Amino acid sequence: MDLKEKLVTSFLAFENRVDVDSPVHDIRNEALKTFENTGFPSKKEEAWKYTSLNSVLKHDYSVFPKQENALEYKDIKKYFIHDIDTYKIIFIDGKYSSHLSQVTHDGIDVCLMSSALNKDKYKPVIENYFNKIATKDSLASLNTAFSNEGAYIYIPKNKAVEKPIQIIHFSTGNESAVLLQPRNLIVVEENSHVQIIERHQSLTDNPVLTNSVTEIFANKRAIVDYYKVQNDNQNASLIDHTFVEQKEQTNCFVHTFSFGGKLTRNNLNFYQNGEHMDSTMKGITIIGDKQHVDHNTLVHHIEPNCESHQDYKGIFADSSTGVFNGKVIVEKEAQKTNAFQANNNILLSDKAAINTKPQLEIFADDVKCSHGCTIGQLDESALFYMKQRGIPEKEARALLMFAFSNNVLDSVKIPELKQRITKLIANKLGVNIGFDL
Amino acid sequence: MLQIKDLHASVEDKSILKGINLEVKAGEVHAIMGPNGSGKSTLASVIAGKEEYEVEKGEIILEGEDLEELAAEERAHKGIFLSFQYPVEIPGVSVTNFMKTAINETRKAKGLEDMPAKDMLKMIREKSELLEIDRKFLSRSLNEGFSGGEKKRNEIFQMAMLEPKLAILDETDSGLDIDALRIVANGVNKLKSKDNAVVVITHYQRLLDHIVPDFVHVLYNGRIVKSGGKELAHELEEKGYDWIKEEVDA
Ligand SMILES: Nc1ncnc2c1ncn2[C@@H]1O[C@H](COP(=O)(O)OP(=O)(O)OP(=O)(O)O)[C@@H](O)[C@H]1O
Ligand SMILES: [Mg+2]
User: Fold this and answer.
1) Model ipTM value
2) Per the CB < 8 Å rule, is A388 touching B77?
3) Is the pTM of this model over 0.80?
C-alpha cells in the first residue's frame, strides 16, 4: 500500500478520535477529498519542479503515534532557548507533553489546538479563522484533513506578550518511521505583539516526515515575529506551510534558519489585506551533503501603501541543492507598493546547485519593485587577503560566509536566539570563532 | 632575514619571475622599482604565499627556514606582512573585528591565549592614533567604500597592529595625498627597528624621501637587473628606465 492509500484508509481510524459532528470536521472531509483527488505533488508541477518528494515518500510511515513517549528535559535542553523565560508548547511524536510545556490562559491563550477545537469557548475564533487562509493544494489539504493537534495561540487586543513562545516538536524514533502533521493557529488582535520560535527536532536516525500548517492572523497594528529554526538531522524532512494574513499597519516578520534536515520545503505566503503594513521574510540556508532546502514564497499586495522585504541567503556545500522561488503579486489597487526581494547564494562545490526564480506580477503602475539574485563562489582574493593577515583558511572561509549572511541576523529581536543562531552557524561552518561582526 | 635565491615563478604557464636573487638583512630598508608589469607585485605575492603562483625553481628563506611548504597564513604567523597594492574589500567584517581575529589567530598559532579585550582596545587606540585614523572608521566594513588613500592608510594600520618582521609595502604611496604620505611614512618609520626589515615597492622617489632605503633594486622582465644605493632612485626619477632596458637588452 502506498502512502497515499494508507493515509486515506487511516482517515476512518482518525475519525474515531475526533468530534465528527463539528463544522471543522466538514472542512477535514472536504480536504481529504482534495488530497485523494490530487495525491502528492510531482516534479511535473511547476511549483515542485526542483524538489522531488520521491525519496521521502518511500518510507512506511506510521501515521498516528502508538504510544506516549517521555523525554527528560535535561536530555533535550539544548534544543530550547533556555536562558530566558518562555512559554512552551512541546510535542513528542505528535503528542502534547504537559511535562515539558508551559502554557497559559492568563490574559492570553497559549495552548493546544486539540482543546481549542473541542471547547465551545474557542468556537468563534475557530469559526473565524480556522483554514481561512491555508491553500487548498494537496499537502496543505492533507494536513487539514488530519488536523487536530498543534499550537493554538490567541492574543487579545493591546497585549505585548513579554515572553517568547517556543513551539517544539520532538520525534523519538520509537517507531521505524513517523509522519507528523502539526496544525497551528495564531491570532493576534489589535495592537498586540508576539514572538514565536518554532523548531522540529528528531532525536534518532529513523525517518521523520513533518507536514506542517500554520495560519497566522495579524489584526490592526499587530506585530508578529516568527522564527523558524531548522537544524534537524539527516533523516528528517519538513514540508512547512505558513500563511500570514495582515491587516492595516501591521508588521510581520518570518525568519527561517535552515541548517539541516534531509529535505526542507518552506511554503511561506503573505496576504496583505489593508494599508500601511510591512512584511519581512528573511532566511539563511547553510547546508551540505545531499541536503535540499526549497523556499517558496508569495507576497500578495492587495491594497496601497505597503511594503514587503525578502532577503534570503544560501550557502551550499558538497552535493546540496537549494531552490528559491519568490513570487510577488501587486494588484492594480496596490499603488505605492514597495516590494524588495533579494536572494544571494554561494556555491562551495561544483556539485552544489541552486535554482532561483523571482516571479513578479505587477498590475499597478506606481510601484517600486526590485529583485536581485546572485550566485557566486567565495572571493579568492578576499581569502588570500585574510590568510595574509594570519587567519587560517577554514576560519577565513567561515568569516566570509558569516559576513555574507550576517545582515539577516540583524533583525532577530531576541538576543538569546540571535546568539544561538550565531553558534549554530559557527558549528555548521566548523569553526570556533566568536563572531561578533 | 630574507634570502631569495634564483626564484622562478609562473602563473597559468606564463613565466613571470625569471631568476630573482635578493638578500634583506634585519634593520634594512630595500626599495624595489621597475616598469609596470615587470613582476614586482608578483614577487610580493609569491613571498606571501599566494597559491595561484607556481614556484618553479629557487628558494625563499626566512630566518633560515625555507618557506616553500608553508601556507600564506603560516607565513603571516612567521612575521611576513604584505601591504596590498589593491587592498580587498570585505563587506560585513569590521576593521576592528578583522584585526581581533587576525591577532588572535596569530597568537593561537604561537600557542598563546587570546589577547585580553582591554589590551586589544588599548593597542587599537594607540595604533589608530599613530596613523591618525578616526575611530569611527574602525567599525566600518573592511575596505568597503574606502577611498584609495584610506585603504592604504588602513594597510599600514594593520601592519602596526601585527608588528611584522618583514613588511612588504606594494605601492603604498599610490593614492595618498601629501599629508597622508607623510603620516603613513612616519608610521612605518616608527615601526622600524634593527630587528625587522621593510621592502618598499614604488614608482616614485617621493616615498623614498620619507622612508629612506639602504638599497634600491630595479626589477625588469622578471629579474633584478640593477641594484644600488638610494641615489639609484634619484637617477631613475631623472632618466626613466630606457637606459636600463637598453643595457639589459644589449
Ligand atoms: N594572476 C595572473 N594571471 C595572469 N597574468 C598575471 C597574473 N598576475 C600577474 N600577471 C602578469 O604578470 C606580469 C607582472 O605583473 P605584476 O603585477 O607583478 O607587475 P608589477 O611589476 O607589479 O606592475 P605594476 O607596476 O603595474 O604594479 C604582468 O604582465 C601581469 O599581467
Ligand atoms: Mg604591482
Assistant:
1) 0.96
2) no
3) yes
